[in-house]
Amino acid sequence: MAIVTNIDVMMAKKKMSLKELAERIGMSNTNLSLLKNGKVHGVRYRTMEALCRELDCQPGDLFEYRADEEEERGQG
């Protein structure tokens, strides 16, 4: 996967549980868990805004790009 989520890292820094964060941003535990584990294909700006507000961070703190092995070898 080329886009990696670091939501769990930011949650740990804030000592915030999945349940607490989900309640604060108005999202179900299940959907937040799917987002946190990179199992979704997209994220809304208002969701990113809520995450950044509650975790006191920037979007780049939540998501990062990592080249796939094929891309690194020049095959992608």
UniProtKB/TrEMBL annotation:
CDD domains: HTH_XRE (cd00093). InterPro entries: Cro/C1-type_HTH. It comes from the Bacteria. Residues 7-62 form the HTH cro/C1-type domain. SMART domains: HTH_XRE. Pfam families: HTH_26 (PF13443). PANTHER family: DNA-BINDING PROTEIN, DNA-BINDING PROTEIN-RELATED. This is Helix-turn-helix transcriptional regulator. It comes from Sphingomicrobium clamense. The lineage of its organism: Bacteria, Pseudomonadati, Pseudomonadota, Alphaproteobacteria, Sphingomonadales.
